[in-house]
Design goal:
With 299 residues, the protein is of the alpha+beta class. The chain has 6 helices and 10 strands. A hairpin with a 5-residue loop joins β9 and β10. The radius of gyration is 18 Å and the shape is globular. This is MaoC/PaaZ C-terminal domain-containing protein.
């Protein structure tokens, strides 16, 4: 059960994924829209409110990758050995309220580390006419070295969490619901780590944890609100996942504006770092900040 270092370039797809306004609204509810006040954030949660047009949260694009369910093989690895370590999303054109994209996925890189292996999975989303709609890179941390040796007790917290890139100018609180993971999984990510107590126990968490992409989507939604940014102005987002969030916890997001970007990090209750090196790009070209350079503790 080792990671296949020769899997780079292995690909699957394209596969068509369709979505509707209902999917857009269900996703928004899954990342907490309307949770504090059902009369707020109606632009994400309703399609028929007076004077309010439905909008698509930018991170909704990542659910289309999940729904495509394209998983190029990179070895015989148990699901409980895989941790979502980071995510990047580039948006090349706005997402429609309903539509279709063709999703393709490939293994972009495999990086052996002393404490495991990083696997980068790259996905392209294209319109029916072939134009590029979005690109995503999911960084997975496999708790096995290239020779198959498993490192016991490792969790997502072993990805080091650097401090914010600049002093925070605003702290934003983002509560989550006890059933948040059950609601979010309806957007397409049905990994049992987030719903099955036995799988969560095997992974060393004790009980199901919140999806990393749910934490990221929640943070992005709150940033858009607090900084009064239009969802259609977002050009990309990236972040590292540095620790688990349990449904029902409140996230504390520290954010600072820098040119055409918001830099952010987040902590769960007790001060545990859960999102690091976050960048939300808007109204300009995406400027990647090297998500692939994930620092891991040594064995």
């Amino acid at each position: 059960m080792a990671v296949d270092l020769g899997s780079v370039g292995r690909s699957l797809g394209p596969r068509e994924v369709h979505w509707s306004a209902r999917d857009v609204m269900l996703y928004a509810l899954g990342v907490g829209a309307g949770q504090a006040d059902a009369c707020q954030e109606l632009e994400y949660t309703t399609e028929n409110s007076t004077g309010v047009a439905l909008k698509v949260l930018p991170t909704f694009a990542l659910t289309l990758v999940q729904r495509a369910a394209l998983r190029p093989g990179f070895g015989d690895v148990d699901l409980s050995d895989i941790v979502h370590a980071g995510q990047r999303l580039s948006l090349h054109q706005p997402l429609d309220i309903d539509g279709t994209v063709a999703v393709s996925a490939a293994i972009g890189a495999v990086e052996p580390k002393r404490s495991g292996t990083l696997v980068h999975v790259d996905s392209d989303l294209r319109s029916p006419r072939g134009s590029l709609v979005a690109q995503a890179r999911s960084t997975l941390f496999v708790r096995r070295c290239a020779d198959g040796a498993r490192l016991p007790g490792r969790t997502a917290q072993e990805v080091e969490a650097p401090g914010p890139d600049a002093p925070a100018v605003r702290r934003i609180l983002a509560p989550t619901r006890p059933d948040q993971a059950l609601l979010y999984r309806l957007a397409g990510d049905v990994n049992p780590l987030h719903s099955d107590p036995l799988v969560a126990e095997r992974a060393g968490h004790g009980r199901p944890i919140l999806h990393g992409l749910c934490s990221l989507g929640t943070a992005v939604r709150r940033l858009l609100s607090e900084f009064r940014l239009d969802a259609g102005a977002v050009r990309g987002v990236e972040a590292r996942f540095t620790g688990p969030v349990w449904p029902g916890e409140t996230l504390a997001i520290d954010a600072v504006r820098a040119d055409q970007a918001l830099r952010f990090s987040a902590r769960a209750e007790g001060g545990r770092p859960v999102l690091a090196a976050g960048v939300l790009h808007f109204d300009g070209a995406l400027r990647p900040t090297g998500l692939a350079a994930v620092n891991l503790r040594r064995c």
